[in-house]
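Cross-check.
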Amino acid sequence: MLLDISPSTQLIIAAILAVALILFIASNINDKLKLKVKEYEATWKAKESELKTQMQSWALGELEKYKNSELLLAKTQLEKNAIEAAITSLDRWKLEQESIIRADAIKRSMTVNLGKITEHLLPFSEEFKEFNPKDARFIGSPIDLIVFDGVSDRKEMVNIYMIEVKTGNSALTEAQRRIWQAVEAKRIFWKQIKMGEFKWKTEQ
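Predicted model, tokenized:
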């Protein structure tokens, strides 16, 4: 039947078929291109999301570094300011207290010296009236005085007193307390040593 179609008609049909084929091929290519574009878009979106995540992570890291750096700088500055303020306050306090400290040191020194003077003058004071000052022997440490009561007056019975002078609220030292306990317990003994040729004590 194609033989009955005129050449012009055959040409038109061939052209239509060619156009249809071209359109089919173009459509197929277009579909493939669209698929490729979608794949590229999906890949790009994934890369974009990854890059955004990386950028956000980097930005947060840099922000944290900056924050820590600023905090460290602020902390260092605050510490420096605090130290400078403390030194200034200490210097001001030292200037204000210098006269008080000196006066207190002088007062304490006078108290110590007065105590030592009192210890030496005690045998001649009213508090010592029951004893003869000649019987007193000042030793200073660990107690102040030993009184051999009756020796100077040649009394038959001699009493020995250990005297410690205290002023204010002063208390016995540990050594003085143990000496007092020994006296109270009558752990006092007479020891006579005869000296011959002097020899140094040898270690045992």
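Residues 125-184 form one domain. The chain is about 60% helix and 5% strand. Passed to J.P. for a second look.
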